[in-house]
Specification:
homodimer, 5-stranded antiparallel β-sheet
Chain lengths: ~550, ~550
Amino acid sequence: MEKWRITHRLLRYSSNLLVDRSSNCSASPISAFRFASDYRENFVKRGLRNASSIQYRFFGSVATEIQRNTWFSTLNLDDISYFKEILGEKNVIQDPDVLLDANTDWMRKYKGSSKLMLQPRTTSEVSQILKYCNSRRLAVVPQGGKTGLVGGSVPVFDEVIINVGSMNNIIAFDKVSGILVCEAGCILENLISFLDDQGFIMPLDLGAKGSCQIGGNVSTNAGGLRLVRYGSLHGNVLGLEAVLANGDVIDMLGTLRKDNTGYDLKHLFIGSEGSLGIVTKVSILTPPKLSSVNLAFLACKDYFSCQKLLLEAKRKLGEVLSAFEFLDKQTMDLVLNHLEGARNPLPSSMHNFYVLIETTGSDESYDREKLEAFLLRSMEDGLVSDGVIAQDINQASSFWRIREGVAEALMKAGAVYKYDLSLPLEKMYDLVEEMRIRLGQTAKVIGYGHLGDGNLHLNISAPQYNDAIFAQIEPYVYEWTSNHRGSISAEHGLGLVKANKIYYSKSPETVHLMGSIKKLLDPNGILNPYKVLPHSLNSYH
Amino acid sequence: MEKWRITHRLLRYSSNLLVDRSSNCSASPISAFRFASDYRENFVKRGLRNASSIQYRFFGSVATEIQRNTWFSTLNLDDISYFKEILGEKNVIQDPDVLLDANTDWMRKYKGSSKLMLQPRTTSEVSQILKYCNSRRLAVVPQGGKTGLVGGSVPVFDEVIINVGSMNNIIAFDKVSGILVCEAGCILENLISFLDDQGFIMPLDLGAKGSCQIGGNVSTNAGGLRLVRYGSLHGNVLGLEAVLANGDVIDMLGTLRKDNTGYDLKHLFIGSEGSLGIVTKVSILTPPKLSSVNLAFLACKDYFSCQKLLLEAKRKLGEVLSAFEFLDKQTMDLVLNHLEGARNPLPSSMHNFYVLIETTGSDESYDREKLEAFLLRSMEDGLVSDGVIAQDINQASSFWRIREGVAEALMKAGAVYKYDLSLPLEKMYDLVEEMRIRLGQTAKVIGYGHLGDGNLHLNISAPQYNDAIFAQIEPYVYEWTSNHRGSISAEHGLGLVKANKIYYSKSPETVHLMGSIKKLLDPNGILNPYKVLPHSLNSYH
């Protein structure tokens, strides 16, 4: 028991922490790439070419080859004139430097060759743009904060970029119901700050919050750190406005918690990655800001203990549990070796597994006592080997730094093969162990993620990219996930890179139905082509 | 302060209460109708006729006239033979007594004239039935527990009834994740009992739980008493299996909290009232059962205080708040006059408004102290005029009896015009007051409902049905609701009775898109015809 280091100083850092936790990677997304030069070079070697010359692309896997769909028109001067007429000169962007940035995702992993970015300021302008593009068969890519990880938010070839960042007004906020209505281009962190002043929080929180926009969050059904407490955007988004490919504006911008009048079609636009329509406004239920946040960093001897601890935390911490994250020994090792200033909060020895438990509640002293009592009981029961509760904002930030710094540490360590999987909890870690056996000494396999949501981030780190390693990983990881009825994309979406992998997680009948919905809503296929759906269903012309 | 009656005996009644609260109306739904004979007689007078003779119907409103769609075939002997072949003799029901019951909803308000009920036991059988019916253009009505309030679950004319009650197996339960997978015909109360043994609860709880089935709950996006805490079924249903009109089985039965692989099409089947497919299996996230439940019955001097109290409860009780219900003085008066054994828990004088606050948490003594402290503070602030906390299961049941007995009291009081509305909180009660002014002494207007969800049950009670009263109510109530961007059906759905009223809550473009989705998924329109969508979109043949 004496190992248990609990500080009895009151911890109250909620709103500050929000800002602090974001600073790791959101202030300047592109700058994060300075850690990824090895990756970029290797990626380029694996086949990224210039679209304007050869019009097809390879994306890391030998099986993925995409050709520009000749059904789509190419831009002409009349198009540019029309857009200038409806948007004004300055919102029709042809500047090569700006376009270079807009064509490239924040990891600099995906790069298109669009010659035009449009910046509408109103729903009506989005509607006019789409109506025109549809009639002209001009393909478009809706763009928000461009922080996605699967190549969904940048052009693949010469699609017209529709950037909604100028549509960033907060339209209404109701302090009684906690319902916020805003435009799609609002940056998540700005909404968080706005709500903080009102005494509320957003029900989602992401590392990329400094750049990502609510329209993109909704379009990709972003998950993040608060899902275990507040659930997904399908539960929190109360309404939205979307513009269809033909320019029709669908006003589903309800601000009601309950509304059973016909089909709830807003869900079609949540998570469909801009391929069924462009989300222009969002109404979202926001929880009240609670006054106390506590964070514990714990060690467990095995994965079964982590699992058991989660079950107990759900029951005993129940209503105050707000995050339950885990990482294995190999992840900690990698972070300590590659992340500057990182320090194991439990330094006496290496443990097999680490767990972060955050609670958020309305009573400071009680919440702390509750967490302490729970942790003491968990130690007595042998579920926790060691642990510490953060005593101030700095300590809390350093704990989060371990968990949130894994991606950065991985990039510094060399080449990395990244998988974002949902798996049944009891089976999840088996895959990590199996991959270790398959790969032996050729690569490091690390497992971490949102245990509270059943979301494993499986990463394989090697000195450099290597086809032999890749062949050991894929399709094995996808097949294994599929055999366990898991998801090959828990929260990142399919985008460009996984569009053809959809059958690993969805039945052919379901995918077929998705294709029918796509054809119904976007008969010319102009919205974010080459993405989400497999190639066979994406290019129906 | 001395008015505050708090008992300090520990209250712990969670699982028992679940059973107790259901007993008011779920044991034998049909028997509830013994209170409604006046209503039935009046209803019949207003135009209910026998479909087999004249093939059209009136449903209470002069504007609602429906004719049988002649696009649909009528049953013949070959059909019966085919169904007997695939389902076996005993699952093809033609017995007139059984059919009389199956044709009639539990309020005996809607009555069809189907000559056939099928009882499939497997998804494959549902698939074969639908494939056949689709090819023969035989209209069908999917049927579960038949507890709906808008005529959605019984035939309008001669539709074949597909009753999924025999598909009532629990398929799997994962105690680590709390994810339950079961067939559509499982009765909600049976699932609650099953989970109770496992230490979990269902995220939804309805008065009708003794009869309603999970497939029907999902198909109607049932709301109920726990929505304020656990959110809607769009957030809690993780997956489902549905059979389309053409017999295609769509397996979306995921058991994952996070899965961003393509369009999340399960949402199309949640709340579409069986008109896009028949839900055959459901996977649902269930919360752990928490050990303490507390219930307070409070008085407030005005509606603004109720609203303010809700805001404070969300903030101060935050994570333990599990219900926030309200009723006005007129509702209490009606309950005391018509509900046997009902007693005002705060008998000293009549108050203008009453609020029930329930908390559910994991720590008995703390939760009680927290609620007490909150209520004392609310009295000091003048938000609460008087109040009492239930000291045992009997007292808690008697408090809930007031709130849950309103519908029964209304039926005993005579004719009743019922409206289930979602409205912005700050405007909600204005409608009740406006209706009182409009109706004067001709009828009693009462307001109660799920304040925590913004859901008002507006009811107008009169000695008997009267066209002059009706003309004062409709379309005024719907127009008022529409003007405030409310919902004309918060939780009951549209069914038959409100199908043509959809435009009050949804834009023409949205409804048009619903119609396109309906045509895509059910080109022959055989699934639950005449319901959900307006007549013009329902009869596209």
